[in-house]
Write a structure and sequence with these properties.
Layout lengths: L2 E7 L7 H4 L2 E7 L12 H21 L4 H19 L6 H9 L6 H20 L7 H12 L38 H12 L6 H15 L6 H15 L10 H7 L1 H12 L3 H36 L8 H7 L9 H8 L3 H13 L4 E2 L10 E2 L1 H15 L25
Antiparallel strand pairs: 1-2, 3-4
Length: 413
């Protein structure tokens, strides 16, 4: 049974005088879930069925598309939404430039980029086709935090008490206190066993696994982002989201109070309420993903028209169609990606610049330049703005319309 455990915090350290004195507090230890087979009833069952069907429609729509090209923007949207929940805000352009040149990225961009790497690693681990292991969870967490200011926590299960909310100096007035560190290893092993079950509705399984992970809060940092990666581990492993990841975190971020309230519902035993909330977010995310694909397709068609409808085997056409997956390009990147000489790559980029399809990020430089499509970033930012009412950095809604802009320098990162 779930229980509150009496703990004692020793005196000393920093903070107010009352925080430096010994005091007792209660930490919450959830029920194990490896044997969970609770029936899902009423509205929650309907929401799970609807979300499952919506995910199936999304995967079916993906079969007629270039998945490498169109899955990438959805994965980045998921990483941006998950990072936003933790107060890490970056635009699509800023994230893309950080991915292109990580050494020049600032701390926030590196943190969001870590979220992308964690998602990519989670998907790769599932695609190995074996049971999910505790070490896999640690590897996802390492991918999330390596190269960031919190790298010391990467892949390390906590050995100290943590807490959520309050003034931050002690658990005295915390909103929630997770299990004591000595209980964490057994709870994680139980969670991993639950994640490998195959006899539960996958959407409900993802909801329960994510909420349980957040309740355990097993790491010193990055719990929210790592826990949202587990959503996609389960949906992909269970085969209902094998090709593309719906941007569920964007929806959760847009409804932050409902999301946090759902996690509280789970801890307090109202599991069906949380499952229904989560399933609704999945359904909304899948519909939004298809809409984004339609908008990207429309923009690519406009860019091809502006470029003069380059022939099917031309570098220019391949480059335009590959922009959603590779939104920052250089002569070296194009040469390697499409197996052409740097001279041919540079010529294609220069022609697309002349046609106002691409713009250089460093105006005035002739070498070492990279090119982007500001219109693509406008579509992506508008998508997240509409879903999350401002997720990212731009306050006004960017226009998603694929119309020809006046020739200008690209905007600030």
């Amino acid at each position: 049974m779930a229980e509150f455990v009496e703990c004692v915090r020793e005196g000393g350290g920093y903070g107010a005088r009352r925080d430096r004195k010994p005091f007792a507090f209660q930490a919450f230890v959830p029920d194990p879930i490896a044997e969970w087979d609770g029936p899902i009833a009423g509205r929650a069952a309907e929401a799970v069925a609807h979300a499952t069907a919506a995910l199936g429609e999304l995967q079916a729509a993906g079969t007629a598309r270039d998945l490498e090209t169109l899955a990438a923007p959805l994965l980045r949207a998921e990483a941006l939404g998950s990072s936003f929940i933790e107060g890490l805000r970056a635009s699509n352009k800023r994230l893309a430039l950080a991915a292109y040149e990580p050494v020049a990225a600032d701390g926030t961009a590196r943190a969001v980029l870590g979220n992308v790497r964690a998602m990519e690693r989670a998907i790769a681990l599932v695609d190995e086709g074996r049971p999910f292991l505790l070490e896999d969870l640690l590897e996802i967490h390492r991918a999330l935090l390596e190269g960031t200011t919190e790298a010391r926590f990467a892949g390390v299960v906590r050995t100290a008490q943590n807490w959520i909310g309050g003034r931050g100096t002690s658990p005295a007035d915390a909103t929630f206190v997770p299990p004591p560190p000595g209980r964490v290893p057994e709870l994680l092993e139980d969670l991993v066993r639950f994640m490998n079950l195959d006899d539960l509705p996958a959407v409900a399984q993802a909801a329960v696994a994510h909420a349980q992970f957040e309740t355990i809060h097993p790491f010193g940092d990055g719990n929210g982002r790592a826990g949202r990666c587990l959503i996609h581990v389960i949906l992909r492993r269970r085969g209902i989201s094998p090709r593309v990841s719906a941007p569920v975190s964007v929806i959760l971020a847009a409804n932050g109070r409902r999301y946090v309230g759902g996690l509280v519902d789970f801890r307090e035993g109202r599991v069906d309420d949380w499952i229904g909330t989560f399933a609704d977010a999945v359904s909304t995310a899948t519909v939004a993903a298809q809409r984004l694909w339609t908008e990207i397709d429309a923009l690519l068609d406009v860019l091809l028209e502006r470029a003069g409808r380059p022939r099917a085997d031309s570098v220019a056409r391949k480059l335009i169609l590959g922009l959603p997956a590779q939104p920052v390009v250089s002569a070296e990147v194009v040469a390697a990606r499409y197996a052409v000489t740097p001279t041919a790559a540079r010529a294609a980029l220069n022609r697309l610049e002349e046609k106002e399809v691409l713009f250089p990020t460093r105006v005035g430089r002739r070498r070492g330049r990279e090119w982007i499509s500001d219109e693509l970033f406008q579509v992506l930012d508008a998508f997240e703005h509409d879903l999350g009412q401002g997720i990212g950095e731009g306050a006004p809604r960017p226009s998603p319309a694929p119309t020809r802009p006046p020739r200008k320098k690209p905007g600030p990162v």
